[in-house]
């Protein structure tokens, strides 16, 4: 869906980076991460900054880019990116059908703004349906081509950092 609306592959990568993970980045690290030329990344960073979607701040000699949380379309773009990745749907289905899920966290590379192809989840709850979990992991791979690794916990250790938290 997103790739049919946005024709630049580099721009899609930037939108995913900044609006799925709420991270910051600078030109050279983004070019290296995306395996793109610095020029192509610079062009798209400039376009997104001029549109007000990204903020650019100088940190020493480096310009650091971040998503503009006060942009009127921030929530909508974040929602589109999340739907594109299938994360929102995945988390809602898991929370709804797994049993007594108290909290669900996305951690690991996705929480740090990297798309390694693996989504790591931590589910906290009791009497969780492990058969359904196996089914949804397989379906998720078919749908969004991402491997899902899930850790089940009986109680919340209280120190988990994640990009999305669903549940009570």
From TrEMBL:
This is Helix-turn-helix domain-containing protein. It comes from Algoriphagus jejuensis.
């Amino acid at each position: 869906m997103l790739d049919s609306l946005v024709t630049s592959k580099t721009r899609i990568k930037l939108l995913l980076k900044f609006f799925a993970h709420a991270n910051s980045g600078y030109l050279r690290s983004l070019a290296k991460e995306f395996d793109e030329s610095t020029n192509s990344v610079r062009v798209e960073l400039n376009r997104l900054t001029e549109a007000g979607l990204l903020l650019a701040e100088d940190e020493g000699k480096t310009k650091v880019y971040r998503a503009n949380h006060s942009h009127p379309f921030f929530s909508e773009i974040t929602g589109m990116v999340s739907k594109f990745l299938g994360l929102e749907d995945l988390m809602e289905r898991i929370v709804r059908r797994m049993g007594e899920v108290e909290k669900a966290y996305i951690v690991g590379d996705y929480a740090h703004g990297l798309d390694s192809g693996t989504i790591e989840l931590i589910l906290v709850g009791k009497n969780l349906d492990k058969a359904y979990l196996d089914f949804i992991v397989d379906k998720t791979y078919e749908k969004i081509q991402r491997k899902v690794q899930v850790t089940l916990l009986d109680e919340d250790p209280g120190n988990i950092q994640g990009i999305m938290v669903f549940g009570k």
